Every structure is written in C-alpha cells, then in structure tokens.
Amino acid sequence: QVQLVVSGGGLVQAGGSLRLSCAASGRTLGSYDMGWFRQAPGKEREFVGAISWTGGSTDYADSVKGRFTISRDNAKNTLTLQMNSLKPEDTAVFYCAASTGHITAIPPNYGVTYWGKGTLVTVSS
C-alpha cells in the first residue's frame, strides 16, 4: 500500500507560481509511474501530467504544457509539480497519483493505482 500526501496548495495571483509536492510512504516510488490530476469546481477530474518511473519521460495536458513541470526524486520518494504563469482557470483541487502500470489521460481510472488526498489551488484574477 502506498500513501500519498500532497502539500503546497494555496492562493496565488494570476501570473504567479506555485509548487506542489507529493510525499510517499509505505513503499518506494521508484517503480511507479506518477502523475498529477485536478478537479475544478463543478467539473470532472482531469489529467494534468505524468512522469515515468525513471523520470525520463513526461506527458502533459495541452492546457498546462509549457507552464507546468513535473519532476521526481526517487531517492527522497517525492514528486513535484512546478506551476508557472498560473491562470484563474487553473483553480482546482490537485491530486497526486501513482500507478503500477502507466498513467494515462483516459478516464475514469486513468491507470491510477493509488490516489493522494487533494490540495486546493486558487488562482485569483
């Protein structure tokens, strides 16, 4: 079993930056694909981005490409989402996820095995 704890959410002005971190416990993350998802008020959860277990491959939703960066530190068992040039439409609860297979952008399961609890990111205009 893997427990994922997300931190770093908060309120930021449009154009600003925020960094989310996901810390894992229970097992090492070294063999898991990892990803970030978000759910805006009144909307379905959506894929934000994913990173392979080696960290050598990343994939992003078109809406965040060029603004968000996912990275991981397997030695520290952590996953990071650096968010720049934030927009009000980025306001959402953000979730960290881990997969024993591959994370995809395909709902409803997205290939996710473990979900972390979300953290709220609010971008003011």
Word description of this protein:
The protein is mostly beta strands and 125 residues long. Helices cover 0% and strands 50% of the residues. It contains no helices and 11 strands.
Relevant terms:
125 residues, mainly beta, 7-stranded mixed beta sheet, 4-stranded antiparallel beta sheet, 11 strands, 0% helix
What's a concise summary of this model?
This protein is mainly β. The chain is 0% helix and 50% strand.
Rg of Cα set: 13 Å
Q: Average pLDDT, to the nearest integer? A: 94
Give the helix tally.
0
Structural class: mainly beta
Topology of this structure?
Elements: E1 3-7, E2 10-13, E3 18-25, E4 33-39, E5 45-51, E6 58-60, E7 68-73, E8 78-83, E9 92-99, E10 114-115, E11 119-124
Parallel strand pairs: 2-11
Antiparallel strand pairs: 1-3, 3-8, 4-5, 4-9, 5-6, 7-8, 9-10, 9-11
